Amino acid sequence: MEPPRGVFTSVWNFIRFLPYFIGLLILGVLKGVIVFPIVLIILTVGNCSLILGLWPVHLFYTFYCIWSTKQLGPALKFVISICALVILYLWPFIAIATSIIGGAAYGFLSPVFATFQAVDGRTTNAFYHSIYDGTWDTVKGSLTIVRDLKDVLYHSYFSIMDDWRLQGPSDGKYYEIRVLYIPLALIAVELGLVVDIPMIMLIAACKFPYMLYKGWRRLFHDCIGREGPFLETICVPFAGLAILLWPMAVIAAFFGSILASVPLGAYAGVVVYQECSLWSGLCYIVASLSLYDEYSNDVLDMPEGSCFPRPQYRKKTASRTNSRADSLSRPDSFKNPPSSTNAINVPILELIPLELLDGLFKGCQYHGEIMVSQGVITQKDIEDAKSSKDSGQVISIGLPSYCILHTLIRSAKANSAGILLNDDGTELTSTNRPRDTFSDWFFNPLLIIKDQIKAGNLSDSDEEYIGKLVLLSGDPERLRDLNIESPPESELRRAEFEALARRLRGITKSISRFPTFKRRFESSIKIILEELAKKNGDSRKSEDAGTQSRTLRSKSMFVRMFSEKNRQGKSDQEAQLVDTD
């Protein structure tokens, strides 16, 4: 939409649109006032019940895993136990406060934003949607939040702790802490908190008025000139709301800076422990003020630099950089960046983690129905997955791993620089992948596995063997019962396939700990269960039809035999009458 030209035209359009915006805002506030008590009760009661109900179990199981794991030494177990005790003591208070504040904010703001989104021109009946949207959807969203929290506290937590408890030490050596440097690290933590918290609070307070003035100046300038967020008419309400709520955003940024000063100052203890020097921790305390000052200047577009000095607090900076660069081996997909012609001709499609999970679940439904029709996935596998048994990993871990494997094989055959998500050409690369830490953990390892598959030149029998190996977690009995292709004769190649399957299943198991994964995956299981029920129903129908046909055949045979006996009886009677005559 082309913005109007001229100051008077812009002002007139702003004044003419103002009553419309105020009416929508009042409607959204009324909906928020009605909905937010319900959402607040659901989130507060549901989350608090889960948190307080599972807190004793988490307390016991955390210490049980800490002291039973073989990865940690005695001194490190003692230190981690103290830290875990503090965290578990504060966890109920923090979680309950977050549930109350978050429930109130979500219950009030969600109807307000839904009211403005209902008039964006995408809906047919804007009046109906402006009243209805954000009411029942917000209530269902609060129930979904409680469900996801239950999955995290019950499924993800125990999965992580079990892996940590059962995993052995790397290279046969457990991790241990240097006890002599713990007192120096604690002294550095205290000094860091004493210095950084008040100084960062002072720096944030000095820049607080400038942030408020600059934000308002920019928003009013865009409002008058119809630029930035005021370019489109539908964006005007949100931009106007940003003007009203900008002081709250500045206050939130101020308190966020205060909270960020706590880990920033406490990191001085980590520096002391890593560098084995108290002087390095003191240098870091001074340098952290300079780091925060420069970062805040960059955010507020102020002159670069800082008035605080930045002393060197690392003794081995060069060696650390070189070792880090050597430890991160990049596959061919990283060495060959996308060409500029492709970047110009093909628009960059930004992908989010939930879209990637939705694509994975669609693949699970597709391949799951095929496996059910082939008899690879049985009713027992689905029942074990629904009851969260260890034997149910064929569905919960094996099926997503199988889908990811097929995606990587398709990408390797297409010589893709990234990962082809589906057949329509949607490609996940380093330019459009989600920019979050959770995705960073899995994107690079999957690219490495894809390059290994490409270099392995897999045949069709190899692909089938690896697929069933990934799906069935290497169960030899089920692999033998399926009568698939024989494994490779070379022991080295067979070991490579088994290692690839283990890595892929490990990555998938980590992905399954994503908060919304279990809820979304269960809907896929329902679809697979319906397909299995249809298959069993068809087999029962065929069995019933066979039984009926056999019954009909037996009845017809019985009728023929009975009729023959009747005819034989009548002929005998006639013979007797002839003899009598």
Automatic annotation (TrEMBL):
Residues 562-573 have a biased composition (Basic and acidic residues). It comes from the Eukaryota. Keywords: Membrane, Transmembrane, Transmembrane helix. InterPro entries: At3g27390-like (IPR040229). Residues 311-339, 537-581 are annotated as: Disordered. The chain crosses the membrane at residues 20-43, 49-67, 79-109, 180-213, 234-259. The keyword Cytoplasm does not apply. This is Steroid nuclear receptor, ligand-binding.
